[in-house]
Amino acid sequence: MREQEPRQDQDSPWKEVLTQFFPQLIQLIHPELYQLIDWERGVRFLDTELQKIAPESRTGRQTVDKLAQVYLKNGKEQWILIHVEAQGRPEARFGERVYAYHARIWLHYRRPVVSIAILADSNPRWRPQRYEHSLAGCRLLFEFHAVKLLDFDEAQLLADENPCALLLLAFRRAAETRRRADLRFQARVELMRLALDRGYNEETVGALLRLLEWIMSLPKVLEKQYEELLEAVKRERQTTFLASFERRALLEGLQQGWEQGLQQGLQQGLQQGLQQGLQQGLQQGLQQGLQQGEEKGLREGLLKLLQDLYGEIPGTLVEALQQVSGAEQLLSLYTEAVRAGSIEVFQQRLAAYQSGTD
After folding, report:
1. Chain centroid to CA 276
2. How many CB atoms lie within 10 A of CB 114?
3. How many CB atoms lie within 10 A of CB 264?
């Protein structure tokens, strides 16, 4: 029996790509426009305004809309509307819809608008680039900039240092390997290694790896193999980025630590306050108990996180963690735990931290 294919939700990763890598994406899909923009003045996204202008643009799963305000190098403002066909399925009235959004945006802002469509479908014949209408001597012709992912040369994308090139490849290969999880696994590993080899900063690498995992989702068995391989690569290269499964582990550990800490702190505080028998004692007991219980809960959450990531925890490490006090100090160790890559490295960093606080 064929293993069930992982659920694909292409809309959300496209939204994150457009938000996190907007200049890099424009550089790839519209080089002429990229050269006109003064990127040093930043980008302002107007998604809330877009929903008010064209609320129905959010109803379908096939498109992702992004409206951005940028400045040209000559000092003029430029409004850009990007439609992304994330699910890769043609739409009969796509050109008309792009025109409708373009017109509404222009009527609202009275500023120049550039409409761009990224066509991620698998039909090479579907290439909308215009909308036209004529009747009784009145004629309308609207043309917009459209790019087709199928038209990008894979060799050029692989050689391109632009981080968005890897993401465009990921979308293409996700579609090509929809029924071949083994090939998708190989493709994701290849793109993962390229992301690490390019010399991007830690933030960019982390964002790329999270998006690769999102775009090219795998069955649980292969996902586990990928995570183990990624851990091995991290240890080999001594990198510190956080993949999405590591971020989940960190958040789960933090949540568990806080919940345990508050519960235990409340119990301890009540016991201490009742033993003292005075209202002032009760208040002081609650405060002290909450602090102690919080630290205990955070410490137990940290131990659970370490165990989930690296297996059995040495007794010497448990004893060392008992010497760490303060919620802020314990919270900082959660990040160190996830980034360490091994229990031995974490122990070394903990020892260095404790020697620095002596």
Report:
1. 51
2. 18
3. 19
Which residue from 167, 50, 160, 55 is spatially nearest to 120, judged by alpha carbons?
167
Strands (E), the chain: 44-45, 63-71, 77-85, 113-119, 130-135, 138-143, 145-148
Q: What's the rounded Cα separation, in Å, for the pair 60 and 11?
A: 10
Q: What is the pLDDT of residues 91-139, one digit of tens each?
A: 888 899 889 888 998 999 888 899 999 998 888 999 999 999 999 999 9
Identify any residues that bridge with 131 across adjacent strands, giving them in sequence order: 142
Is residue 211 a contact partner of residue 13, using CB atoms and an 8 Å limit? yes
DSSP state of 136: T
Alpha-carbon distance 143 to 341, whole Å? 52
Helix (H, G, I), strand (E, B) or coil at 30: coil
Q: What is the DSSP string of 22-50?
A: HHHHHHHH-HHHHHHB-GGG--EE-HHHH
pLDDT tens readout for residues 271-312: 555 555 444 454 555 455 555 556 777 777 778 777 766 677
pTM for the predicted model, two decimal places: 0.65
Q: Are strands 113-119 and 145-148 parallel, antiparallel or unpaired?
A: parallel
Rounded Cα gap, residues 121 and 87, in angstroms: 7
**Which has the closest alpha carbon to 102: 53, 30, 63?**
53
Task: Please report, for residues 38, 96, 128, 324, the alpha-carbon distance to residue 91 in angstroms, rounded to integers and kept in the order given.
Answer: 34, 10, 9, 59
In residues, how long is the chain?
358
Q: What's the N-to-C CA distance of the chain in angstroms?
A: 60
Structural tokens at position 129: 């680039």
Instruction: Find tokens 């990928």 and name the residue.
Output: 226
Backbone φ, ψ for residue 84 (5° rounding):
-115, 120
